[in-house]
Automatic annotation (TrEMBL):
<dbReference type="Pfam" id="PF13419">
    <property type="entry name" value="HAD_2"/>
</dbReference>
<dbReference type="GO" id="GO:0005829">
    <property type="term" value="C:cytosol"/>
</dbReference>
<dbReference type="GO" id="GO:0006281">
    <property type="term" value="P:DNA repair"/>
</dbReference>
<protein>
    <recommendedName>
        <fullName>Phosphoglycolate phosphatase</fullName>
    </recommendedName>
</protein>
<dbReference type="InterPro" id="IPR023214">
    <property type="entry name" value="HAD_sf"/>
</dbReference>
<dbReference type="InterPro" id="IPR023198">
    <property type="entry name" value="PGP-like_dom2"/>
</dbReference>
<dbReference type="InterPro" id="IPR036412">
    <property type="entry name" value="HAD-like_sf"/>
</dbReference>
<dbReference type="GO" id="GO:0008967">
    <property type="term" value="F:phosphoglycolate phosphatase activity"/>
</dbReference>
<dbReference type="InterPro" id="IPR050155">
    <property type="entry name" value="HAD-like_hydrolase_sf"/>
</dbReference>
<dbReference type="InterPro" id="IPR041492">
    <property type="entry name" value="HAD_2"/>
</dbReference>
Length: 245
């Protein structure tokens, strides 16, 4: 099963984010940052709120931003990333794809998915505020979690998923490396998924009893001795995927 983030992974929200930010600044009579600096701040993991002055205006900024960021007139500014639709087309019939997003407005989210003509690709759509209800079910599955921020990586780990970070979204590759995802890619098309049941073996101490006659994913960049361990323990997997290949 694939769990996929939305903003920054499937769609590029940068125009919307900056438009809402600059409009908020206008309402508060604050000079906005340039669009380039605003996006660079986001991608380096910093918040534009730190640069709102005076400080007492920050809470009001947060409130206005939250009210506007999911309005339809701004959602129209989002664009699907290159290869994202091809990625969804190629995978939705082979794998279950769940969309998990930090959005709050379900109605406008569904409107946007229809507007972009991509709603059909997702078997289930989960808002982050509803995620806890799905955690136990998801933890029982073999998961790949794809996202563009540190929050996605942390949530993927919470679900015991194989975490894949994309470096073209709202965080840079350099920043994402600090959170040690299992894999970082520059294009969704670079991600290949097995079409059969896969067991993801991440540690030397757990899971060896479950590898016999199964396809096993090993990240040799982290645990170079795992394959030798199979031979030593005489547990022969059906196939071994090295770094996803």
């Amino acid at each position: 099963m694939i769990i996929c983030d939305f903003d920054g992974t499937i769609i590029d929200p940068s125009e919307r984010l900056y438009k809402v930010y600059s409009n908020c600044c206008s309402l508060l009579k604050i000079k906005p940052l340039s669009q380039k600096r605003f996006i660079n701040l986001k991608r380096s993991g910093k918040s534009e709120v730190e640069f709102i002055s005076p400080v007492k205006a920050r809470e009001k900024y947060r409130k206005i931003f939250k009210e506007k960021i999911e309005e339809k007139k701004y959602l129209r500014l989002d664009r699907i990333y290159q290869y994202a639709k091809d990625f969804l087309e190629d995978n939705y019939k082979k794998n279950e794809i769940f969309l998990m997003t930090n959005r709050q407005n379900r109605k406008n989210l569904f409107w946007q998915l229809d507007y972009l003509e991509i709603r059909k690709f997702f078997q289930k759509i989960i808002l982050a505020k509803e995620a806890n209800k799905s955690l136990q079910f998801l933890k029982s599955r073999h998961l790949y979690f794809i996202g563009d921020t540190e929050l996605d990586i942390k949530l993927g780990r919470k679900l015991s998923a194989f975490t894949i970070a994309v470096d073209y979204g709202l965080r840079t590759r350099r920043y994402l490396k600090n959170f040690k995802p299992d894999k970082i890619v520059s294009f969704l098309k670079d991600i290949k998924f097995p079409t059969e049941d896969v067991f993801i073996l991440k540690t030397l101490n757990k899971g060896l009893q479950q590898v016999r006659d199964r396809t096993v994913f090993i990240d040799l960049s982290k645990e170079p001795s795992l394959y030798d361990l199979f031979r030593e323990k005489r547990k022969q997997p059906k196939m071994v995927l090295i770094n996803g290949k």
